[in-house]
């Protein structure tokens, strides 16, 4: 029997991460279990966009080979995340008349309403990544979650339309296809991450996932079980490393080591007497500069200044949807940059919200590595793909299904007079 697997590919500026899951039984509804998680260095990809197709392809191929050796199974297709800061999020409404004479609403009515919502002015060089229904209205009844089976004359849907830059989407697709992989589907990174990190109750109460990567920070905000806002900010943990390098006048590799081993975003909790032995670290990192010891409190002050800026930008996004300081379930931090000491307390202070490190709530894993924060998007893509495979295009409209239906409509238009 051919083993059925689902793979999630998360391409970051520093590392490509791939998670692989396998069904525990032959049934398509059988639960998934993560059986492998690998990473490899990234070349040709920065700040969420491809800047060299050849280098990106080579990096993806290396990661795939590593994963295949680990799990012992061929990987032929992947679900892919989008981390491009150029993505845009817009609201749109669609209104249609109920098709059946008895007024009963069916899936076709919902599809037509969502298609009507897609008839929005799309900026040049952009394409639709996701059309996410937020709520429906049937006649005068608003805030309907699932109108199927209800009776009415007029069906209205409010959607969140996520747009991606066409040129970057084509470059990403091209880099992946050149490895010989098929693309099962594409998902905006924070949406995929939320699939495994947020519970239904947290989404109902009002919460946000904040994924801090090397050069980008991804945000998804939920309330009443629906997505309110999603965005990708062009700022991440590498900016903290750069600040340390400038502040201490040391090489970037040494600054990264200092951040990971001695860094903190809470300078008030560090005494002035605590020092970092830069001479020893410089020897280990093969840095020839003559570096004196430095106060750990000074390093923490450098880090805190940049952390404050990151959270200020996040709070600006919350302000756009009138949710600044108003998410009862709080924020959940993930991503490689979230492991910085004191970051959770900084999030509570600057965002004025409850904050915690996010944990995988959905997928079983046979390796502890898959539960590390840096793999949250990769395993989120697996959960995202599982939703589509198990439930088809209900809920969030699957882009590939839409494209096929559009082609069929085009054929009929050509045939019919």
Written overview of the protein:
The protein has 417 residues and is of the alpha/beta class. Among the domains are: 88-164, 2-Layer Sandwich (Dna Ligase, domain 1), CATH 3.30.1490; 233-356, Nucleotidyltransferase, domain 5 (2-Layer Sandwich). 37% of the residues lie in helices and 28% in strands. The strands form 5 sheets. It has a 6-stranded mixed β-sheet, sandwiched between helices. The protein has a 5-stranded mixed β-sheet with strand order 14-13-12-17-18, sandwiched between helices. Strands 7-10-8-9 form a 4-stranded antiparallel β-sheet. Strand 17 (330-334), helix 10 (343-351) and strand 18 (355-357) form a beta-alpha-beta unit. Helix 1 (53-71) crosses helix 3 and helix 4 (189-197) crosses helix 11 (376-391). The longest helix is centred in the last third of the chain and has 25 residues, at 296-320. It is globular. It starts with a strand and ends with a helix.
Structural class: alpha/beta
Global shape = globular
How many helical elements?
12
User: How many whole angstroms does the radius of gyration measure?
Assistant: 23 Å
The count of strands amounts to 19
What's a concise summary of this model?
This protein has 417 residues and is α/β, with parallel strands linked by helices.
């Amino acid at each position: 029997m051919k083993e059925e697997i689902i793979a999630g590919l998360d391409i970051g500026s520093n590392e490509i991460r791939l998670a692989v899951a396998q069904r525990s039984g032959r049934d398509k509804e059988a639960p998934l279990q993560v059986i492998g998680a690998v990473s490899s260095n990234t070349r040709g990809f920065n700040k969420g966009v491809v800047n060299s197709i050849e280098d990106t392809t080579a990096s993806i191929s290396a990661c795939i080979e590593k994963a295949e050796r680990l799990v012992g199974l061929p990987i032929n297709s992947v679900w892919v995340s989008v981390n491009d800061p150029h993505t845009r999020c817009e609201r749109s409404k669609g209104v249609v008349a109920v098709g059946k004479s008895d007024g009963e609403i069916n899936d076709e009515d919902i599809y037509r309403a969502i298609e009507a919502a897609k008839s929005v002015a799309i900026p040049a060089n952009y394409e639709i990544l996701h059309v996410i229904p937020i709520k429906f209205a049937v006649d005068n009844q608003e805030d309907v979650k699932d109108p199927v089976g209800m009776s009415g004359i007029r069906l209205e849907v409010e959607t969140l339309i996520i747009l991606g830059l066409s040129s970057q989407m084509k470059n990403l697709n091209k880099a992946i296809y050149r490895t010989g992989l098929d693309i099962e589907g594409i998902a905006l990174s924070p949406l995929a991450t939320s699939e495994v990190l947020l519970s239904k109750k947290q989404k109902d109460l009002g919460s946000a996932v904040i994924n801090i990567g090397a050069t980008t920070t991804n945000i998804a905000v939920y309330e009443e079980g629906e997505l309110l806002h999603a965005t990708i900010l062009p700022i991440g943990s590498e900016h903290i490393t750069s600040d340390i390098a400038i502040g201490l006048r040391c090489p970037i590799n040494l600054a990264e080591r200092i951040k990971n081993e001695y860094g903190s975003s809470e300078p008030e909790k560090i005494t002035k007497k605590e020092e970092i032995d830069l001479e020893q670290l410089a020897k280990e990192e093969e840095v020839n500069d003559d570096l004196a010891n430095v106060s750990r409190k000074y390093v923490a002050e450098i880090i805190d200044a940049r952390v404050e800026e990151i959270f200020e930008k996040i709070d600006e996004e919350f302000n756009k949807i009138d949710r600044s300081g108003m998410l009862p379930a709080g924020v959940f931090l993930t991503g490689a940059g979230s492991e910085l000491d004191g970051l959770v307390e900084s999030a509570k202070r600057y965002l004025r919200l409850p904050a915690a490190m996010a944990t995988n709530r959905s997928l079983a894993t046979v390796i502890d590595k898959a539960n590390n924060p840096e793999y949250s998007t990769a395993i989120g893509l697996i959960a995202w793909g599982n939703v589509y495979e198990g439930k088809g295009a209900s809920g969030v409209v699957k882009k590939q299904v839409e494209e096929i239906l559009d082609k069929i409509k085009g054929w009929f238009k050509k045939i019919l007079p």
